[in-house]
């Protein structure tokens, strides 16, 4: 039996404490599989006195994660503090500089500094592993980097934020957006300031990491088209249900003729497809490739134990001596990210308009669509059939939903601008992209 693999864990919060408990419980029993036991030999957090649910007495305490990261007593540095910069970044860099392998769950750090850190790891002959950084417990990094490596991937899409999926699931069941958000906050699924989750920024960070591995490009989290769910209403959920769709906040990365699309937005997906059935805080990622066809993983996207499970998977690989380039290919071989213009995006669209109840309004809208070369799949006036006259005295703006055939973002935006300028509608039209699945 070889000497134990000595772990230093910085950050003992939700994930770090779960990981320490997991190593305490399984560090020896895993030894026959790994050829060596696992030991936590050093830890760091802010509050030394707090009970973390594992025995800290025999473990060296460091007030400073950077000193832990470069300690000679540590073989692997596990960063579970969080944040793109500051002490998380400094300590990860310090560990790699000293030739230590790093395991982290930190998507913000990877999204911002991933390519540079991967290059540093390779330069120092160290490993940088981050399975837990995307979709919590779901082993999607390993799947993309290793299991699907033989494929030319064409598209991946996923529910990467449990908070948004919980809110949309509750809205499907009849809650309005504020009530669903409040419930998510009460259950601890959403922060007091939910902006980062509900406006799609968390999904975008995770997507940028997946895109890099799937398409062999440098991580580029700045060029992602991002729209969150805060503008989705109960009317949209009801209309989606009636039309045979569900609404999900998807992160999508897709190879196109003009580059790679990276987009995060509320998306209509056919009700009977796999991703439509993912409810609550569960995450899912689907990947499409030329030999695999399509494959989908689903499972817990957050939570201390599920995330610690993914961190442990990385540690197990290190104990076994598995070596892989962090982003699937050597950092020097990563291509620059070539962004596909969002305006060139092609797909179907759902539109919800409040049409002014006056003669010729529908004809004018149809004409604007036709002028933009958009053909309509369906048009539903929600209070009464199209073309029937309102009862005398009940004239008011009418909610209308339109589903288009595949068109471009450019065309749809142009048509909507003309419709708004023409005064046929009141308020801002709602527009939700339909993903062909
Ligand atoms: N929670 C999840 O479900 C989840 C899922 C996937 C990925 N992640 C990622 O995992 C990482 C950790 O998340 P978490 O939820 O476990 O966070 P957390 O509960 O807030 O824990 C953060 C830990 O970092 C420690 N810390 C903060 N600043 C420090 C400093 N300057 N020096 C030393 N220690 C410091 C804190 O110490 P004290 O405890 O003393 O305050 C705490 O133990 C993040 O990158 C997060 O994005 C989390």
Textual characterization of the structure:
The protein is α/β, with parallel strands linked by helices and 437 residues long. The protein has three domains: 129 residues, Rossmann fold (3-Layer(aba) Sandwich); 161 residues, Dihydrodipicolinate Reductase, domain 2, CATH 3.30.360.10; 92 residues, ACT domain (Alpha-Beta Plaits), CATH 3.30.70.260. It is built from 14 helices and 17 strands. Strands 7, 8, 9, 10, 11, 12, 13, 14, 15, 16 and 17 form an eleven-stranded mixed sheet that branches. Helix 1 crosses helix 12. The termini are far apart. The structure holds NADP nicotinamide-adenine-dinucleotide phosphate (NAP). NADP nicotinamide-adenine-dinucleotide phosphate (NAP) binds next to helix 1.
In brief, what are we looking at here?
This protein is an alpha/beta fold. 35% of the residues lie in helices and 25% in strands.
Largest sheet: 11 strands, mixed
What is the second-level CATH architecture of the largest domain?
A: 2-Layer Sandwich
What ligand molecules are bound, each kind once? Answer: NADP nicotinamide-adenine-dinucleotide phosphate
Low-confidence stretches: none
Helix share of residues? 25-40%
Shape: elongated
Number of strands: 17
């Amino acid at each position: 039996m070889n000497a134990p693999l000595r772990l230093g864990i910085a950050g003992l919060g939700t994930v770090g404490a779960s990981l320490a408990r997991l190593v305490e419980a399984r560090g020896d029993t895993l030894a026959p599989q790994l050829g060596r036991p696992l030991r936590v030999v050093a830890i760091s957090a802010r509050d030394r006195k707090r009970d973390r649910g594992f025995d800290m007495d025999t473990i060296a305490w460091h007030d400073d994660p950077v000193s832990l990261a470069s300690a000679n007593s540590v073989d692997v540095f596990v960063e579970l503090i969080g944040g793109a910069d500051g002490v998380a970044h400094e300590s990860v860099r310090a560990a790699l500089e000293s030739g230590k392998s790093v395991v982290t769950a930190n998507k913000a750090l990877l999204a911002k500094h991933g390519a540079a850190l991967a290059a540093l790891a390779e330069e120092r002959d160290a490993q940088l592993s981050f399975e837990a950084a995307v979709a919590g417990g779901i082993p999607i990094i390993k799947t993309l980097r290793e299991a699907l490596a033989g494929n030319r991937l064409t598209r991946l899409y996923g529910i990467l934020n449990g908070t948004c999926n919980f809110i949309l699931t509750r809205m499907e069941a009849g809650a309005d957006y504020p009530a669903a958000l409040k419930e998510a906050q009460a259950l601890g699924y959403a922060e007091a300031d939910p902006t980062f989750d509900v406006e799609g920024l968390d999904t975008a960070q995770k997507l940028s990491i997946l895109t890099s591995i799937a398409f062999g490009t440098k991580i580029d989290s700045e060029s992602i088209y991002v729209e969150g769910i805060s503008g989705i209403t109960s009317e949209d959920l009801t209309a989606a249900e009636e039309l045979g769709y569900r609404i999900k906040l998807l992160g999508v990365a897709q190879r196109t003729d003009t580059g790679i699309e990276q987009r995060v937005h509320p998306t209509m997906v056919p009700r009977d497809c796999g991703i439509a059935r993912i409810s609550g805080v569960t995450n899912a990622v689907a990947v499409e490739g030329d030999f695999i066809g399509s494959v989908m993983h689903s499972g817990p996207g957050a939570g201390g134990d599920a995330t610690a499970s993914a961190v442990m998977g990385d540690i197990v690989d290190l104990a076994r001596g598995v070596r892989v380039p962090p982003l699937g290919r050597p950092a020097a071989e990563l291509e620059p990210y070539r962004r596909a213009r969002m305006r060139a995006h092609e797909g179907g669209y759902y539109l919800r308009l409040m049409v002014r109840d006056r003669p010729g309004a529908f004809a004018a809208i149809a004409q604007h669509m036709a002028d933009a070369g958009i053909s309509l799949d369906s048009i539903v006036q929600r209070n009464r059939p199209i073309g029937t006259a309102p009862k005398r005295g009940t004239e008011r703006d009418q909610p209308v939903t339109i589903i288009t055939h595949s068109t471009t973002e450019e065309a749809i935006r142009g048509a909507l601008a003309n419709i708004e300028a023409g005064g046929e509608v009141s308020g801002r039209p709602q527009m939700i992209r339909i993903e062909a699945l």
